[in-house]
Amino acid sequence: METITLRDQVEEALHTVYDPEIPVNIYDLGLVYSIDVADGNVVVIMTLTAPGCPVAGSIMQEVNDKIMAIPGVTNADVRLTFDPPWTKDMMSEEAKLELGFL
Questions:
Q1: Cα(first)–Cα(last) distance of the chain, in Å?
Q2: I want to staple 28 with a disulfide (CB 3.0 to 4.6 A). Which of 21, 54, 89, 95 is the partner?
Q3: 28 in a structural domain
Q4: What pLDDT sits at residue 88?
Q5: Handedness of CA 35, 13, 89, 77 (dihedral sign)
Q6: In-domain check, residue 18
């Protein structure tokens, strides 16, 4: 029987968050740089497609809310970085295909 870890559940939740301007989830877009889980505390380091993204606050709040809704999570810390800057090369193959980059 396969065990689903808390990290797996966080990753699944991030697959449900979309940039409203792009029909691909933030995980497949390559906007999530790291997920660290320890004792119910989750730290996500992520970026945006552009520093001036007008929906930055709402995306980060949605990420926080979806992580906090996972049973076993006691704290969510969503951090924004632009180092390294996001590029289209960070997208999954599926995202590139869906957006016509392949």
A1: 36
A2: 95
A3: yes
A4: 92
A5: negative
A6: yes
pTM as predicted: 0.91
CA dihedral 46, 74, 14, 65 (to 10 degrees): -90
C-alpha distances in angstroms, 19 versus 37, 45, 58, 72, 100?
A: 24, 16, 9, 26, 17
Q: Which CATH number goes with the domain that contains 33?
A: 3.30.300.130
1 pLDDT more than 60: no
What's the full length of the chain, in residues? 102
Number of domains making up the chain: 1
Report how far residue 96's alpha carbon sits from residue 50's, in angstroms, rounded to the nearest whole number. Answer: 18
- Residue 27: pLDDT over 80: yes
Per DSSP, the three-state class of 1 is: coil
- Structural domain harbouring 77: 6-83
Instruction: Encode burial over 23-53: b for 16+ CB neighbours within 10 A, e otherwise.
Output: ebbbbbbbbbeebebeeeebebebbbbeeee
